[in-house]
Design brief:
The protein is mainly beta. The chain has a single domain (9-14, 28-225), classed as Clam (outer membrane lipoprotein receptor (LolB), chain A). The protein has helices at 9-12, 32-41, 105-111, 115-121; strands at residues 28-29, 48-58, 62-72, 76-82, 90-95, 98-103, 132-140, 143-152, 155-163, 167-175, 178-187, 193-200, 205-215. The protein has a 13-stranded antiparallel sheet with strand order 1-7-8-9-10-11-12-13-2-3-4-5-6, with helices on one face. A hairpin with a 3-residue loop joins β3 and β4 (76-82). The longest helix has 10 residues, at 32-41. The model is unreliable at 1-16 (pLDDT under 50).
């Protein structure tokens, strides 16, 4: 996970000072097979198209538009976006945690610099396969929380699923203790994304998605994975 990153505390927490970790606690070692099964369960059951409106802001600009994410389980994502009045269009194809291609590449890297966080923004957990796994499950009244931590070298990736009045998936990525990205995704009753916010600590910047429609009967043309526009 070595791309360029953007974001800041005032975007993450709306206050000065260093943002606190999403999971400020020690976690016990957990079963990697159970963690992998949980991550697989966050995937849509079949090809799915998610239409959304998006907003992006950093220290220099603020803009937005519309887009579509098409997910083909188990690991493929086509992400298309366009700015106001049809300007600033772009697309990318992701396979797992890698960008297969992006056009224009610079715009996509600026818009969504952390691939695993983009997946999390769409409600999908994609932890590194060879990571050490830690976890915690707790409950208080009608609220339940499941925490998973994946440690891969200097990278730490935390996922928190909170269920109560609604269901929320949060993710946080730190490298050598430094916060690189955090996401918060509101999930609907089917576990599909209803909206998301991704914050990145070195810009500052924020990327938000507001889901317009989810098509769980989508048919994805195989040529779409190669066609750039």
């Amino acid at each position: 996970m070595t791309l360029s990153y953007i974001g800041a505390c005032w975007l993450l927490a709306g206050c000065p000072g260093k943002p606190a970790p999403l999971v400020p606690m020690w976690l016990a070692p957990a079963d990697p097979a159970a963690a992998a099964a949980w991550a697989r369960a966050t995937l849509p059951g079949r090809d799915t198209a998610i239409r959304f409106r998006w907003k992006y802001q950093d220290a220099d600009r603020r803009w937005g538009g519309r887009g579509q994410a098409r997910i083909a389980p188990p690991d493929s994502l086509r992400f298309d976006y366009v700015g106001p009045l049809g300007l600033g269009a772009g697309a990318a194809v992701l396979v797992g945690d890698s960008v297969l291609w992006a056009d224009p590449e610079r715009n996509f890297r600026s818009l969504v610099p952390a691939v695993r966080m983009l997946w999390a923004g769409l409600g999908v957990a994609r932890p590194p396969a060879a990571a050490q796994v830690f976890g915690l499950s707790d409950a208080a009244g009608d609220s339940r929380r499941q925490i998973w931590r994946f440690v891969d070298g200097s990278d730490t990736l935390d996922y928190v699923v909170a269920e109560g009045a609604g269901r929320v998936l949060q993710a946080e990525w730190r490298q050598a203790g430094k916060l690189l990205a955090r996401s918060t995704t509101q999930l609907d009753g089917r576990g599909l994304p209803a909206g998301a916010r991704l914050d990145f600590p070195e810009g500052p910047a924020r990327f938000e998605l507001s889901v317009v429609a989810v098509d769980t009967a989508a048919v994805i043309d195989p040529a779409l994975w190669r066609r750039r526009r």
